[in-house]
Amino acid sequence: MNGTCELKTKVLNRTNESKVNNVEQETQNGQYYANSNVYSYESVVKIAQFLLDRVPFTPKIGIICGSGMGAYWNKGSLAEALQNPIKFPYEDIPNFPISTVEGHAGQLVFGYLSDVPVMCMQGRFHYYEGYPLWKCAMPVRVMKMIGVTHLIATNAAGGLNKTYKVGDIMIVKDHINMMGFAGNNPLQGPNEERFGPRFPPMNSAYNKQLIRKAKEIATAEGLGDLVHDGVYTCLGGPSFETVAELKMLGMLGCDAVGMSTVHEVITARHCNMTVFAFSLITNMCITDYDCKEEANHCEVLDVGKLREGDLKHFVSKVVEYMAQTM
Ligand SMILES: O=P(O)(O)O[C@@H]1C[C@H](O)[C@@H](CO)O1
Predict the structure, then answer these.
(1) Is 33 part of the annotated catalytic residue set?
(2) Buried residues in 246-278 as b, exposed as e (16+ CB within 10 A)
(3) What's the structural domain count of the chain?
(4) What is the CATH number of the domain that holds 283?
(5) Looking at this predicted complex, what is its ipTM?
(6) Catalytic residue among 99, 104, 105, 232, which?
(7) CB of 259 closer than 6 A to ligand 1?
(8) Does residue 256 line the site of ligand 1, with CB under 6 A?
(9) Whose Cα sits closest to atom 5 in ligand 1?
(10) Which residues bind a purine D-ribonucleoside (predicted)?
(11) Half-sphere exposure of 200 (CA within 13 A, CB side)
(12) pLDDT tens digit string along 158-183?
């Protein structure tokens, strides 16, 4: 992914009052960028170095655990399955945000999955927690600085595609960046060319070879009936969607809806990482006004728990395959 260009981003002159919200970064000459990414290249390197100094191996695969898939109480969860784990609670990592959502343990775990070194976010950051998108996605850049070349992003999502069932796995083949339609993008602000180009393409964000291979793996492992590929969209949350919103998303071609992943994938592709992502369908979206059920987070976590064995197995096999291709 080349395409870096010489365009210089315009710097806005601001007064000190504009520092509110902590979304502006002072430049050396005292000017402020609007909505800037406050994590400079150097500060991301510093976080990566803090971790590298404490881990005796350098993983090339990074995993982000979705809701219920990396919960601290999930002893059988994906993150808990890593062998010889080295754990870093987020509050112990300098300049790292903290997890505030149930089902997101809030630690980085380094270890081995299928004898392959990986690093795993056992808990991610969401926009609705109050973090801007660039902050939610910052750990992806830390992964990159550590040496990760392949990202596996997982999430819990509501199924819009009527052929899906609760507990199914949707391999993400594409996304619709709904928040981006309103200009909210993790790459908003001055571009740091050392991470990637100003205008990264997204038409092949999800690696086709990995999608194909993951489907083969699912079939070979007896999970074929559960697995689909489809289009994911992320809304800001935390409120679940209305019936009208869900009908609209269905008409737009979304197969599943969630509250994460898109900004992580954009950030990963910006720094040229290979991306594989999937959604665990934890609930079917309610598009019938007469339906008495309501979406809720407990159900999301419960389905994550129910599927943890299958997901762990599936991800281990995908990791095994990825390692062979590196
Ligand atoms: O972190 P993910 O995207 O898996 O979490 C989903 C979206 C909301 O955070 C939560 C709703 O139950 O689950």
Answers:
(1) no
(2) beebbeeebbbbbbbbbbbbbbbbbbebbbbbb
(3) 1
(4) 3.40.50.1580
(5) 0.99
(6) 104
(7) yes
(8) no
(9) 67
(10) 241, 283
(11) 24
(12) 999 999 999 999 999 999 999 999 99
